[in-house]
Write a structure and sequence with these properties.
By secondary structure, the chain is an alpha+beta fold. Helices cover 38% and strands 19% of the residues. A hairpin with a 2-residue loop joins strand 2 and strand 3.
């Protein structure tokens, strides 16, 4: 068991900038935090007496990694305020947290325990066309509840790496999305724009006009949304694609996997590898290969010849190289 300071430090090191505060009425506060690997991702088993855990805007801005956290309540109850929803999570129930959104978790009345599967955001959203419904919970009555349990159970199958990234978005499918124009809050409207762009960013032919049509805005309205938030369509698209590449490189490094970096770049929507290399170095201060090496804690991640060789100037079969790095300016 850990005292609060050690437990809190372990929580932040493993999950990012979530800020915890213990219930001062609890004497000799002691919890535990155990990290293991399941389905190719980190799964934490967290146990603690009454406490409050917050994900604030400050914490979001301080983290350079983005995740969805799949929570499964084991014991006790956890009150959760997230993505505009207030939920009480009971034993056996699941809930999805989005690290890009603020959150409040309250453990009151007695100790609680839950599992937290750390899913890199880029891998969850790959091949998806809807944003998973963060803040929603799944009860044992849900048809996919048993499948989710099987993924996280210690005695479950070990060959399901990758399956979790298909199952979680399916289980938390949000359904029809509103148009951005129907959202009264300017902050909510731009969030919808960014999330829609994130879902479409892997398409190398994505244009500002297509994004406008998808969000229910005119081209002029969409450009004004970007301008009022201090960015442009082009800049936001590039940063989104770079974040997707970085997330996949981190995940590959943790698994000790061989990764063809050029293929990951093309898969994220980049059509010009020279532009990708320049943009990546500008964003992260190092080359993609240097970034991958820094993510590998052992410093000796095995890579195939394609990863170590200079990146190709032409696209792989089935993907034409774009004549322009960005199909449309914002």
């Amino acid at each position: 068991m850990m005292g609060f300071d050690t437990w809190n430090g372990t929580l932040r090191q493993s999950c990012g900038h979530y800020y915890a505060a213990p219930d001062r009425a609890v004497r000799n506060w002691a919890g535990s935090f155990t990290l293991r690997r399941r389905c190719g991702v980190d799964v934490a088993e967290v146990r603690c007496p009454p406490a409050r855990i917050e994900r604030t805007r400050k914490g979001i801005l301080r983290d350079d990694q983005e995740h969805f956290f799949l929570l499964r309540q084991l014991e006790g109850k956890t009150g959760i305020l997230h993505a505009g929803r207030e939920t009480l999570l009971r034993p056996g129930e699941f809930l999805l947290l989005d690290s890009t959104r603020a959150a409040e978790l309250s453990i009151t009345g007695g100790p609680a325990a839950f599992l937290s599967a750390h899913l890199p955001r880029a891998l969850v959203l790959e091949r998806r066309r809807e944003m998973p419904a963060a803040g929603c919970k799944i009860t044992p009555a849900h048809p996919l509840h048993a499948s989710l349990c099987g993924l996280l159970d210690a005695g479950g199958a070990e060959d399901s790496a990758g399956y979790i990234f298909d199952l979680v978005p399916l289980a938390f499918a949000a359904g029809a999305q509103p148009s951005a124009g129907s959202l009264g809050s300017r902050r909510h409207r731009f969030r919808h724009v960014r999330e829609t762009l994130e879902l479409l960013s892997a398409d190398p032919g994505l244009t500002v006009d297509r994004l406008a049509a998808r969000t229910g805005l005119s081209r002029r309205q969409l450009q004004r949304e970007f301008q009022e938030n201090g960015t442009t369509f082009t800049d936001c698209l590039t940063r989104t694609r770079l974040a997707a590449v970085a997330g996949k490189l981190r995940h590959a490094a943790r698994q000790g996997a061989r990764v063809p970096i050029a293929q990951i770049a093309y898969g994220a929507g980049f059509g010009d590898i020279s532009h990708f290399n320049r943009s990546f170095r500008q964003q992260f201060g190092c080359s993609p290969r240097g970034f991958l090496a820094s993510c590998n804690h052992s410093g000796s991640l095995a890579q195939d010849a394609n990863s170590l060789a200079p990146l190709p100037k032409t696209a792989p079969p089935g993907r034409a190289c774009l004549s322009r790095s960005h199909p449309a300016e914002g």
